[in-house]
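Q: Could you fold this chain for me?
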Amino acid sequence: MPQEYYATGRRKNAIAKVWLSPGGGEFTVNGKPLAEYVCRSTLELLAREPLRLASAEGQFTVRAKCLGGGISGQAGAIRHGLARALVAMDESLRPVLRRAGLLTRDPRVKERKKYGRRRARRGFQFKKR
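A: Sure. Below is the predicted structure, expressed as C-alpha cells.
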C-alpha cells in the first residue's frame, strides 16, 4: 500500500493535482494553507467536502497544485481531485462519493463569444427607427 495517493481534478478551466497522504490534517494549495488560498469559507467547505463525507477529516495531509481558471473553479477542481484520490486509496468510498456527485467532472465551461454579438448569445439592442 503506497504512502501517497495522487489524482487530478478538473472544473471549468482549472486543473488541480492532488496528493493525499496519512498525516495530521494539513491542507495546502500552491504552498499556502487552504483558507488563505481560497479566502472564502464557502469555497473552503466545498474543497473539504470529500474528506467530510469519507469521515476522514484530520487524518490526511492534502497537498494540491492548481493551474488555470479562477478561485472558484480551482476549489471545484480540488474537490474533484480529492474525491478521486480518496477512491484510489479506498475503493469502498466510491458509492458514498458517487452519490454525492463528487466523482463526476462538471462539464460546464464558459461558452465562447460569437461574432456579431456582445457575448456568447446576447445580441445588440434592437432599435426600430
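A (continued): The mean pLDDT is 94.
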